[in-house]
Every structure is written in structure tokens, then in C-alpha cells.
Amino acid sequence: MPEPPIDPNRPSAARIYDAFLGGTHNFAADRAVADRTAELLPMTPRIARANRAFLRRVVRFATARGIRQFLDLGSGIPTQQNVHEIATEARVVHVDVDPAAVLYSRHLLGDDSRVAVVHGDLRQPSLVLAEPAVRKLIDPGEPVGILMVAVLHFLPESPALTAALRDYRELAAPGSVLAISHAAAGESPAELERIADLYNRTGSSLLPRTTEQVERFFDGWRLVEPGVVQGPEWRPDPGDDTTGAAGYLTLAGVAVR
Ligand SMILES: C[S@@+](CC[C@H](N)C(=O)[O-])C[C@H]1O[C@@H](n2cnc3c(N)ncnc32)[C@H](O)[C@@H]1O
Fold first, then answer.
1. How far apart are CA 16 and CA 154, in angstroms?
2. What was the pLDDT predicted at 2?
3. How is domain 13-234+248-256 classified at the architecture level of CATH?
4. Which of 82, 89, 101, 189 has the fewest CB atoms below 10 angstroms from its CB?
5. Is the pTM of this model over 0.90?
6. Which residues, other chains included, contact 32 with Cβ-Cβ below 8 Å and sequence gap of 6+?
7. How far is the CA of 74 from the centre of ligand 1 (A)?
8. Which of 96, 178, 181, 199 for a ligand 1 pocket mutation test, highest count of atoms within 8 Å of Cβ?
9. What percent of the chain has pLDDT over 90?
């Protein structure tokens, strides 16, 4: 997909998230949304860090199952111990719809031949999968780790989304892994509604979903224990404190094919 120009005045989900993580890949417009969000929900930077921790646990889980290739859909800006740094022997394709995230990702990842960054909308799998980098690095005959971490809550229900989920499932060879984390309204629906309004400025709103709705994204896959749970409770590392997990307003689950 040709990359549209970067508009520093329009906030972007990837750069706002980077601001929550204390990163430097963001503009004033992004920091304004991040600051206002943190005023409404002071937990937000911790939520962002906990989500990245889930990403790392999932990549370790998939790697331990022998997965050596990852399709990271809605990858954002891959800082802070990202997929390629955990799965050091795997091939990784990052896909993001935000041209700034793509540019920063390419800059950060340098010329590592086992990692590529593709500009694309995950709801258009035929375009994503036809990208030369995807064809080069992802072997459809081999199990793949498909990551949709903190991205589906930007996408409303649509026939295109349903079809895309089906297409990725059909691409996935037996043994593949699908990981999803997703915003949950939990006990702060009013705050999240106001945050969703702020995110409207990015061009895509924030749509928290229920456990049942998130489980539906795994149709055709087999959820592994403990199923779709509060993010910090998905197979925490020894020593992780999961007290107040519901306050992270994140649901997370992992399934295998
Ligand atoms: C909150 S960030 C999550 C980044 C990363 N997955 C993580 O959890 O650390 C969400 C990312 O999804 C991207 N995104 C939103 N809609 C998308 C779409 N339809 N296709 C691909 N990427 C999308 C945004 O641009 C943003 O970079």
C-alpha cells in the first residue's frame, strides 16, 4: 500500500502509545492526547506497559512451541523489548496502517534481514499477504504467530474485519498461534467513553469490548488456558503482581490452530 504523508498535527494511536511508554517517537499533538488520557485515567501508562509485557509473554509462549515466524498486525513502534528481540531466531513482519509508525519502525529495526515493516490495513489481508516482504519472510507451510495486540479495539465490527480474521486463520498452518489483547470498559466506562472521544482525533475511535466479544475473535481457534482474561492474568511471569488486574481495562487471550 502506498504510504500517505505524515501529518504531525494529527495525533496517531501508535505515537500516543509511545508517549505512554515514555518514548520519544511522538509529536506535541500525540502528547496532548496522552496527557489528557492520563488525566482521565491515571493508570494509562501502566496499562500500556502491562500490554507490552503481555506481548513479550506471548512471544515467549509461541517461541517455546517452536514458532519461528511472526506476523505482527497493528505493530505500532517496536520499542522496549519487542518481538524480534525476544524471538531472536524468528522472522518478523510488522504491519501498521500508520505511516509514521512504519517510518519509525524501519528506522529502529535497521537492515536486519529477518525483520520487515509493511504499511497496510490488517482488514485487507490479500494486500498485506501479497507484500514482497511478507512473501519473503512468512512461509505459509510453517506455523506462524499472529499478533493482534491492542489493535482490534480501533476497529468496529464489519464484514471486512470478519473476513480478514477468517483469512488469517486459513493462512495459519497447524500449530500456529493467535494472540489478542483488547480494551475492556471494566469499571470505568465513563472515563473510557471520554478517552474514546479523544481518540476520534486520530481518525479511529476506541471501542472497548466484552469478554464474549473478544472470545468471538478466536472463532475457529482453540483458546489455551486460562482463556480470555484480564491482561495481567494471562500466564503472569513468576513474581508478577496481578492484584487489581481488572483495573488495567485490558482483556487478553491466546489460541492455537
Ligand atoms: C496501541 S498500538 C499497539 C502496538 C503494539 N501492537 C503493542 O501492543 O505494543 C495500536 C496500533 O494499531 C495500528 N492500527 C490501527 N488500526 C489498524 C489497522 N486497521 N491495520 C493495521 N494497523 C492498525 C495503529 O496505527 C497503532 O500503531
1. 13
2. 62
3. 3-Layer(aba) Sandwich (3.40)
4. 89
5. yes
6. 11
7. 3
8. 96
9. 60
